[in-house]
Design goal:
Belongs to the 5'-nucleotidase family. The chain is of the alpha/beta class and 539 residues long. The chain contains 14 helices and 29 strands. The strands form 9 sheets. Strands 5-6-8-9-11-10 form a 6-stranded mixed β-sheet, with helices on one face. A 5-stranded mixed β-sheet has the order 3-2-1-12-13. The longest helix is centred in the N-terminal third of the chain and has 15 residues. It starts with a strand and ends in a 20-residue tail after the last strand.
Length: 539
């Protein structure tokens, strides 16, 4: 009786972090990066007792200083696909961030891949998979392995409509129910590589987020018969487990680990059967970056580092961030500066922005492109939305849900903004209005003061707000905005707009507007208490 072990290795959400650093300094050696993952993959291939399949699960060409350099200076991310080619990946799946710069930009990278890029549930105008293939059949050591590629169908809720024009985004579950039975007939093993996450707790089945369709991994596990292994991503979580006999992995992000599934196979009556399985994460911690890859891309790294060190302007005053939570509670000169840039380039009197992560550092006295890129990683452009006073208050209420009070009355972060995926970017801070968030009131009723231009904002009052494109189209659950409310756009990436502002104003004064406050009336002194002003309709 024939036996063998099939090993499946996964990277996901690398976001262009090829080198072992986050770009904040030159010549870092952090425990991350594709080139360290390459060392792990090489070692796993060497010790494998049977065939090995290597798959990248998407979000590869956007999200790092390197990818910012590639977009702005090279105009293409195709050259960095050579890293995956040199590592001899067997297959890939596009992620949602592959769409950030438009379909042409993404497809350049797809064409540069020397392996099939699979997307069964994203269809072009002809009804075919946009990347050309839905699945691939591999034959290794006599075993026929089907790999089905799926992508979160929520992309149109985040992207500019132009980036999705002519495309149809189907539910990953609906597409899997169509393809998996067919693949089951022609393959010994069916692997689903899904750039999406898990919407429910794997143990209890209880939802861990709003069931919007963004993540359908749990439904794939429980509603689709015939899947032998599920590779996931998108949430940047670290998962390695077995559910309903199906190994499930998600290897974090930035190449910090490689997901590994092993399937024990036996040949019974002429066909292969799975007799055992395992899932684990192989850490890159303690590994050295692959020397051949590092040398091959050393020239590109040098170009990127020189670009990042380009001087941009100066700051008078304090614009560095030492405590991101405090900055969100009390406001910060860096946030006010980003709002100032947005208002300047849009001609809008009201602006909203956010701190994208806990690692945001703000700006030092001498600002370089490096400082801009590490603080503003996303390729956002700007859009102006025309909304009502009620829309604005609803948006502020949603932002205010970011906070919660502990039993002692201390301000903390709502766990929903941390798990299953950190979403600090979904808390916005505004300029051009004055407002108060009272955390002793229930979510949805926390905005007690809302003023613009010296008067309480009326529910039916019309206002224009400049937002980044992600928020303007309703990203992050901000359905009070949306494409129908966009009146004009600034189609230049924010990193360039920030640099352009410095070109016009080489020296910037660090100022803090102090136009909002987050309070805990009822805790501490009576000075904490404020009157309930709200919108005029609540008077």
């Amino acid at each position: 009786m024939d036996k063998l072990t099939l090993t499946i290795l996964e990277t996901s959400d690398v976001h262009g972090y090829l080198f072992p650093g986050d770009g904040r300094e030159r010549d870092q050696n952090m425990e991350l990066g594709l080139f360290k993952a390459a060392t792990v993959i090489r070692e796993e291939k060497r010790k494998a007792d049977g065939p090995v399949l290597v798959i990248d699960n998407g979000d590869f060409i956007q999200g790092s200083p390197l990818t910012s350099y590639m977009k702005r200076e090279r105009g293409t991310a195709a050259p960095i696909m050579d890293a995956l080619n040199m590592m001899e990946f067997d297959a890939g799946v596009p992620g949602n961030h592959e769409f950030n710069h438009g379909l042409f930009y993404m497809m350049e990278s797809v064409r540069a891949a020397k392996f099939p890029v699979l997307a069964a549930n994203i269809l072009d105008e002809t009804g075919e998979p946009v990347t050309g293939k839905a699945y691939e059949i591999f034959e290794k050591d006599g075993v026929r392995i089907a790999v089905l590629g799926l992508v979160t169908c929520y992309i149109p809720h985040w992207e500019h409509p132009d980036h999705c024009a002519g495309l149809t985004f189907r539910s990953a579950v609906a597409s899997a129910k169509e393809y998996v039975p067919m693949l089951r007939e022609i393959a010994d093993v069916v692997v689903v590589s899904y750039h999406g996450g898990l919407e429910c707790d794997l143990e209890t089945g209880e939802p861990t987020e709003m069931l919007t369709g963004e993540n359908e991994g749990y439904a794939l596990l429980t509603e689709v018969q015939g899947i032998d292994a599920l590779l996931t991503g998108h949430q940047h979580k670290r998962i390695a487990t077995v559910k309903n006999g199906i190994p499930v992995i998600q290897p974090g992000y930035r190449g910090e680990a490689v997901g590994k599934v092993t399937l024990e196979l036996e040949k019974q009556e002429g066909s292969w059967r799975i007799t055992g399985c395992n899932a684990r994460l192989e850490e890159v911690k303690g590994k050295e970056a692959d020397l051949v890859l590092a040398e091959q891309f050393s020239g590109l790294k040098g170009e990127m580092e020189a670009w990042l060190d380009t001087p941009i302007g100066g700051i008078v005053g304090e614009m560095s961030i030492t405590d991101a939570l405090d900055a969100r509670i009390s406001g910060h000169a860096y946030v006010d500066f980003i709002n100032r840039v947005q208002m300047h380039h849009s001609g809008c009197a009201i602006s909203a922005t956010s701190l994208f992560s806990r690692e945001a550092t703000g700006f030092p006295p001498s600002v370089t492109l490096r400082d801009i890129v590490i603080n503003y990683l996303y390729p956002n452009t700007l859009a102006v939305c025309r909304v009502t006073g009620s829309d604005l208050k609803e948006a502020l209420e949603l932002s205010a849900a970011y906070f919660e009070l502990d039993p002692a009355g201390e301000i903390g972060i709502n766990p929903a903004y941390i798990q299953p995926k950190a979403q600090h970017y979904n808390y916005d801070m505004y300029a051009g209005i004055e407002y108060t968030i009272d955390l002793t009131r229930p979510p949805g009723d926390r905005i007690t003061v809302l003023i613009h231009d010296g008067h309480l904002i009326k529910p039916d009052e019309t206002l224009e707000i400049v937002l980044n494109q992600y928020r303007a189209v309703g990203g992050g659950g901000y359905h009070m905005f949306g494409p129908s409310k966009i009146t004009r756009e600034v189609r230049v990436p924010m990193t360039e707009l920030i640099a352009g502002y410095f070109k016009e104003h080489p020296v910037v004064m660090a100022t803090q507007n102090r136009n909002f406050e987050v309070i805990r009336s009822g805790f501490g002194s009576e000075e904490d208490e404020v009157p309930d002003l709200q919108l005029e309709s609540r008077a």
